[in-house]
Amino acid sequence: MAMATSPYVSDALAEGTVDAVVIGGGAAGLNGALILARSRRSVVVIDSGSPRNAPAEAVHGLLALDGTPPSEILRRGREQVRQYGGRVVSGEVVAAESAAPSADGDLRFTVTLADGRHITARRILVATGLTDVLPEVPGLAEHWGHSVVHCPYCHGWEVRDEPIGILATGPASIDHAFLFRQLTEDLTYFTHGTDLDEGSRARFAARGIHVVDTPVTEVVNDAEGALAGVRLADGQVVARRVLAVAAQLQARTQGLEGLGLPVRDLPKGRGFASGTAGTAEVPGVWVAGNVTDLVAQVGASAAAGALAGADINRTLAIADTDAALQKIAEASPQAATR
Questions:
Q1: Helix (H) or strand (E) holding 302
Q2: Are 70 and 54 in contact (CB under 8 A)?
């Protein structure tokens, strides 16, 4: 699930070659750009304007910013990147690929936007985030981010003591149930066609978690449109005010195929592989945030973006030094060896 945010004034796309292009204007991308901009690097953030947490009313569990709307955090982030000379451009990347290196051998990449504009960069930070793939249950998606939640740490306090239902999607939902049981004594686990072993059933019974094996066919609303429960295949309606769903997590990789980044299968979905500080297997490319760490919250994603930005700046500093040394050598071979 992804939702577009309200539009904002976009910067002009930089001309010539920039030090770094950041693909993705969420917490990871903006914090990476902030580190680079503060290091006096020319950096452009390409933001499609569809952050994963757009439906949520507030970000929680983020020190000093708990309760702040996601849109406000992103607005402040864009302002801060711009404060240090970075640019934030509204657009959708449809292609990103390696280009011919510079005369001194430094890496180059070309990034193309949906409207045909393109930009050349020395390094790329991919921070495109992910999409939550919800079960195909009628009425479920319309409550996403409000009465249908996924994270006990992001939304748990706000739904405490409510009648909560776990709509199972697989083995990960079992742990999900224990986490939400911490928040309410009225918890029902809908297996919804997934397996639930006898050991887990016994553990659920010990914690007072009710199990329903009849499949869920739709979400039921009350007269005001609020979530009121779920209808089962036998016609029975089980009253619930909140549904927790461990959605499958799918990294946003569209338009990035030309970079050749390896994708890995994880227990909760698929994302780009990454190494220390977000390094990718493709030289000159870094990945950060939910596109590689599927379960990272806003704070962790921002921290990952900062680490990647710092590492990008480090490699650029080395490349700048190598280029300066090469220039001296070409001008005076003897001077370069002293």
A1: helix 298-331
A2: yes
Element (H, E) at 244: strand 242-245
Whole-number Å distance between alpha carbons of 167 and 190? 5
Residue with tokens 């429960």: 229
pTM above 0.90, yes or no: yes
pLDDT tens over the chain, length 338 residues: 555 555 789 999 999 999 999 999 999 999 999 999 999 999 999 999 999 988 899 999 999 999 999 999 999 999 999 999 999 999 999 999 999 999 999 999 999 999 999 999 999 999 999 999 999 999 999 999 999 999 999 999 999 999 999 999 999 999 999 999 999 999 999 999 999 999 999 999 999 999 999 999 999 999 999 999 999 999 999 999 999 999 999 999 999 999 999 999 877 889 999 999 999 999 999 999 999 999 999 999 999 999 999 999 999 999 999 999 999 998 986 655 55
Name the token pair of 84: 């240090």
DSSP class of residue 10? P
Q: How far apart are CA 306 and CA 48, in angstroms?
A: 20
- Give the number of other Cβ atoms within 10 Å of residue 276's Cβ: 8
Q: With the C-alpha atoms ordered 228, 231, 232, 234, is the resulting torsion angle positive or negative?
A: positive
* C-beta of residue 249 within 8 angstroms of C-beta of residue 290: yes
> Long-range CB contacts (< 8 A, 24+ apart) of 149-152?
149/242, 149/243, 149/244, 149/245, 150/244, 150/245, 150/246, 150/247, 151/297, 152/176, 152/179, 152/180, 152/182, 152/183, 152/244
